[in-house]
Amino acid sequence: MKRIVVIGAGHVGFYVAERLSKKLKSDIKRGQVELMVIDPNQHMTYQPFLPEAAAGNISPRHGVVPLRQALKRCTILTGGVTEIDHASRKLVMQPIAGPVREIEYDEIVIAPGSVSRPLPIPGLADVAIGIKTMGEAIWLRNHVLQRFDVAATTTDPDVRRKALTFVAVGGGFAGAETLGELEDLTATVVDNYPEIDPAEVKWYLVEYADKILPEVGPQMGVYAARELTKRRVDVRLGTTLKSCEGGHVVLTDGEEFDSDTVIWTAGVMPNPLLKQTDLPIGPKGHLECNTRLQVATGVEAGTAEIGEVVDGAWGAGDSAQVPDTSDFPMPYCAPSAQHAVRQAQVLADNIHAKHVGAALKPYEHKYIGSVAGLGLYKGVANTYGFKAKGLLAWLMHRGYHLSRVPGVGRKGRILADWIVGFFTKREMVQLGEISLGREPFEAIAAGSDPARAGKSSS
Ligand SMILES: Cc1cc2nc3c(=O)[nH]c(=O)nc-3n(C[C@H](O)[C@H](O)[C@H](O)COP(=O)(O)OP(=O)(O)OC[C@H]3O[C@@H](n4cnc5c(N)ncnc54)[C@H](O)[C@@H]3O)c2cc1C
Known about the structure:
Layout: E1 2-7, H1 11-23, H2 25-29, E2 33-39, E3 43-45, H3 50-54, E4 64-66, H4 67-70, E5 75-85, E6 90-95, E7 101-104, E8 107-110, E9 114-116, H5 124-127, H6 134-153, H7 157-163, E10 165-169, H8 173-189, E11 202-207, H9 217-230, E12 233-237, E13 241-243, E14 248-251, E15 256-258, E16 261-264, E17 268-270, E18 287-288, E19 294-297, E20 308-315, E21 320-321, H10 337-356, E22 369-373, E23 379-383, E24 386-389, H11 390-404, H12 408-423, H13 439-445
Parallel strand pairs: 1-2, 1-8, 2-5, 8-20, 10-11, 10-16, 11-12, 18-21
Antiparallel strand pairs: 3-4, 5-6, 6-7, 9-17, 13-14, 14-15, 19-20, 22-23, 23-24
Flavin-adenine dinucleotide binds at residues 7-13, 38-41, 45, 47-48, 50-51, 80-81, 111-113, 131-132, 173-174, 177, 271, 273, 317-319, 335-338, 340, 370.
């Protein structure tokens, strides 16, 4: 039996597995091919919905896709790959429990994506949170909502000010959309707290470059910054975080304040798993690939050169450097879902082509622009040169992502969330106690009162 292993069931891995499992349906049925998918989560996360999940516009469960339901012809292993020795076609994975497993394969698709890129900024590792997983989105929602209970209940003005000050560092998709959604949430939620003056709630968006949302182009980026400013978000361009020790935030423009909430989205880096392989890695830590999405060395940026191919190894998405052969002013495809899902199609087709002895095709895609949501009924869009803002852009954002999220059932659930949200009051429940897990029971079992120990927070 030939084994094809897909590492990571994100935008690349999920769509590769889905497409390939259809193309290889009869081979899989006959037991001639096994398509194995390995991911630490039992679901695919549709990342562009993380800000909407954090804001409570969709249920977190609806922003993810259960692998066993969606990829029925695949073998699913839940755990993280820790090493790849491609020379001997073996990998090591750590299941969620129990001993490590060594797995042999014939073909491997390496798509573990990217991770938040932390910088050596004092306090960052202790205080900040990223937004790459559904767990982080849920935590952030609970944490932000709970700040209002902290502020409304404390008698200490410093604790109150710190609780009601929120910072997002990084003005790309993740930072601007998360801030846009959460600011919109807090602007509504504050009405339920007569003790809090809305002017006390302060949001900062800190961006090193001189514009935000480069994905929608400079004109729409300027519009987005202006709209956020109108919503009293303090947008600091050309600025970054100097330190945030103990929640005391110091910006490079000299501003200082205390905040309980620092959302870090200032850049991503390729998954560190790539360093634990014998495969070629580029200068920024990406897997070196050609436009056929084969791992290959000696490929010049921006060209369709084939290079020296590493047989049986394939890569795409955020963790790969794939030459961009369009006239987009970037030598390699930018990390985006737009590239990831399209690369996944070509990658699946090429593995199938190799399997049946057909010719491989190159990945060619001209960036079509993007859509971004900035809270309910607010957004910016720039696709195929068509620029939109406000309600129209927001509808484009929702329509586009609804069409892209896998599965009819998932689409139906998300649509239902939106319709219910439209006709009902904004959901302001926070369930921060889920992160306490067994702690309240342990406290009771130990004879102490969990409420006295403050065991009810996120
Ligand atoms: C908040 C947010 C909003 C975004 N909005 C947009 C948008 O509007 N439009 C757009 O084009 N892009 C957007 N992006 C970017 C887009 O989501 C990514 O570019 C895309 O997900 C990359 O796909 P990928 O398959 O390379 O990685 P991912 O989708 O991140 O998938 C990687 C997978 O690998 C798994 N994995 C990690 N380590 C291991 C391991 N050791 N072993 C096995 N599996 C592993 C992970 O669990 C994950 O499932 C957004 C990103 C974020 C964070």
